[in-house]
Amino acid sequence: MRIVLDAMGSDQHPGPDVEGAVLAAREYGDTIILVGDRATIERELGRHDTTGLTLEIVHAPQKIVMTDKPAAVGRGKPESSMHIGLGLVKDGQGDAFVTAGNTGAALAVATLHKLHRIQGVHRPALSTILSLGGQSIVLLDVGANTDTRAEWLLQYGLMGSIYAERALKRSRPRVALLSNGEEAGKGTALVQEAAELLTGSGVNFIGNAEPKEILHGQVDVAVMDGFSGNVMIKTLEALAQVVFDLIRQELMVDTRSKVAGLLAKPAFRRVHRQIDPFEIGGAPLLGVDGVVIIGHGRSNAVAVKNAIRQARLAVEGQVVDAIRQGLTQAPAIQEQSD
Amino acid sequence: MRIVLDAMGSDQHPGPDVEGAVLAAREYGDTIILVGDRATIERELGRHDTTGLTLEIVHAPQKIVMTDKPAAVGRGKPESSMHIGLGLVKDGQGDAFVTAGNTGAALAVATLHKLHRIQGVHRPALSTILSLGGQSIVLLDVGANTDTRAEWLLQYGLMGSIYAERALKRSRPRVALLSNGEEAGKGTALVQEAAELLTGSGVNFIGNAEPKEILHGQVDVAVMDGFSGNVMIKTLEALAQVVFDLIRQELMVDTRSKVAGLLAKPAFRRVHRQIDPFEIGGAPLLGVDGVVIIGHGRSNAVAVKNAIRQARLAVEGQVVDAIRQGLTQAPAIQEQSD
Fold first, then answer.
1. What is the Cα B221 distance to its own chain's centre?
2. How far is CA B112 from CA B98, B120, B230, in A?
C-alpha cells in the first residue's frame, strides 16, 4: 500500500509527521510518501533509523498553516503539500492521503480542487472517531457543513455505516441521529425529516440518541448536522481539558495531594489512554473520491502513525468503492435536485 | 420573601425538597411554601427541627413525574404541585417558584397554563448556569425551543444579560453567540442573522464563542438555539460522568491506585465542587411573567437550597420587571410579527 502523508501538517511539523511516517513504515511495511519541503524532510528523516523502510519524498514548495483561510488556500497556495499530496491520490500514485493540518483547508482542497465528490454525494462530511472504553464510535458531520438538509444527513448515515462496517469491522452498525431526546418526534424539523428518510433506507437506523447514549457506545454511528456536531466535539475537548486541568491543579495544593498525584500516575495514564483522541489518530473525510484521513493539529508521532493506520483500514475495506456502490444501490439515497 | 417550592419535584422527592426548604428557611429567613401532598410533607417535616422557621404547606392532590409527557400534563393534571405552585406565584401569594421536577412539564405549565409570557417575549428560554472555577456563566436556550428564529436569539441575549447583571451581579455582562468558530461569518445562517441583530442592540455583544471560550469563562452569557444548547449541556454532563467513572474504576485496580484514591479524596472533592451543578442548584426559565427556577431531577437537599437561593437573587434583582422594561426600551427587540 502507498500512503501519502502531509509532512507539513501538524502544529509541530515536520517532527511528529516524519516520525509518525517512520513508525508506520516500520510497523505496517507500507510505502509512505512524505510530501513537503524536501530539504526539511530529509533533515528530519536523518534523525531516525530508516533502514529497510520504504519512505519516498515528493517536494512541495508551499505549505498551509493553521491560520490560513480555507477559502483562500485552494487557489492561493496551489503548490502546497496538501494540493500535491491529494493530487498524488487523484492520479493513482497513492492509495490514501493523511494530514494533521488545517482541517478546513484539507476539506476545501480535497473537495473543491483535487478529489471532488463521489458521484451522487450531496456534501462530503467530516467525521470524528471517539474511542471510549475501547469502543469506537463514528460521529459525522462534525463541521464540514453548517446549514444542513435532511438528504445530506441520510447520506451521512449511509457513509458512516459503511465506514464502521468496512474500516472498523462492525457488523450491521447501529446508526442513530443526535437529538435532544431519544423519543421519536424529538428534535428539530431537520432531525425529524432525516429520521423518516433513514427509516427503511437500508442502514440499521435505531432512532434518536442523546450525547449520553453516544458516549456510552450504545450507537456505532452518530449522525448530526455539522453545527451541532462541531459544538459536541468541541465541548468534549474543552471539558476534558477543564477537568484534567482542575485535577492537576488540585493535586498540587498540599503534600497529601502531591503524594496522591504521584501514586495515581499509572491510573491517570490508563484513564487518559481510554479517552485519548490520539489513540485513533485521525478520522475520514467521507464522500470525497479517495481516502482522506484528517488528524488533530496537536498530533504527536504516535497519533500520526495511528492516522496512517486509519487510512490503511479504509483502503483495505474499500470504503470509497463501497460508498459509490451504496449510493447506486439505494435509490432513495441518490442525488436529488440539490 | 415568599418562595414557593414544589415538594414533589426531585427524583427522590419529597426528601431532598423538604430538607432543602428547611435549610433555606434557616439560612435566609424567608417563608418557604411547600406544595404537594400535605400528609407526605408533614411526615417529612417531622424529621427536621423547624423551630422558628416559617414553612407553610399548600396541598396539591396530584404530582407530575419524570415520565409524564409535558404536552399532556397541562390539562391532564390540573391539580399538580406545579400547577398549584405556579398559580400561587401568579396570584401574588408567592414571589418565585422553584422545582427540581420534570423540566418540560414545568416549562409547559408555566408558559402555557399559569404565568404565560412577559408581553413582547417571543419564546421563553430555559437557561443553565455553569459554575466553573468559581465563575458563573449563563447558557440559554438549553432546550425550551428547538427550531429557533434569530429574533428569539436576540431576546435570549437580552434576557440572559439582564439575569447576569441583576441576579449574578455582573456589570455589563459579555454576551456571545455559540458558534463553530470565533470569527464573524462563522456559524449557521441563524447564527449570522442573530449576530447582526445583537450588534447594536444595546447588550454587550462580544461576538461568536466556541465551547472552549464559554467553559473558560470568557463570556458571561452564551446564547444558543435550544437544540445545540441541549446537545452542549448533555455532552458536558455525559462526559463528566464518563471521566469520573473511568477515574473511579482505574483507582480500584491495584493497591497503589487504591492508596492514591484514598489520599486524593479531598482533592477530588475540591475538583467536584468546582464543576458541580448542584452548587448553583437551578437556573431560571426566562421570559415568563414570574420567577421560575428549575433544578436537576437528581438534586439533593443542598441543591434544592441553592435553587431557592437563585430564586431569591432573581426576586431581589427584579429580573422580571427588568426584562419587561428592557423589551420596551429596546425597540429592535420588541415583538415582531411572529
1. 13
2. 17, 15, 21
> Which residue of B66, B231, B248 is the best one to mutate when testing the A interface, meaning the one whose CB has the most A CBs within 10 A?
B231
Grouped pLDDT means (10 residues each) for chain B, 338 residues: 97 97 97 97 97 97 92 92 97 97 94 93 94 88 94 97 95 96 86 94 95 94 97 92 90 92 90 79 95 94 96 97 89 49
**Which chain B residues in 84-143 lie under 8 Å from chain A, judged by CB atoms?**
132-133, 143
Q: Could you tell me which of A74, A52, A55 has the C-alpha nearest to residue A64?
A: A74
Smallest CA–CA distance, residue A189 to chain B, in Å, is: 7
Our CA-based measurement puts residue B104 at a distance from the nearest CA of chain A, in whole angstroms, of: 11
CB contact under 8 A, B267 and A251: yes
Taking an 8 Å cut-off on Cβ atoms, the answer to whether B239 and A274 are in contact is no
Give the model's pLDDT for residue A271: 87
Does the distance separating the beta carbons of B235 and A211 come in below 8 Å? yes
Q: Which helix (H) or strand (E) holds A222?
A: strand A221-223
CB contact under 8 A, A242 and B270: no
Q: Which residues of B touch A226 (CB under 8 A)?
A: 180
Beta bridge partners of B6: B35
d(CA A217, CA A212): 9
Domains of chain A and CATH, by start: 1-121+287-338 (3.40.718.10), 126-279 (3.40.718.10)
- The segments of chain A whose pLDDT lies below 50 read 335-338
Reference A99, options A125, A81, A87; nearest CA is: A81
Phi/psi for A83 (5° steps) reads: -60, -50
Q: Phi first, then psi: give them for residue A233, nearest 5 degrees.
A: -70, -30
The Cα B95–Cα B115 span in angstroms is 12
pLDDT of residue A336: 47
A253 to chain B: nearest residue by CA?
A: B267
Answer yes or no: are the C-beta atoms of A134 and A112 closer than 8 Å: no
| For A178, nearest residue in chain B (alpha carbons) | B231
Q: Which helix (H) or strand (E) holds B237?
A: helix B226-250
Q: What is the pLDDT of residue A200?
A: 86
- Looking at this predicted complex, what is its ipTM? 0.91
Min Cα distance B80 → chain A (Å) is 24
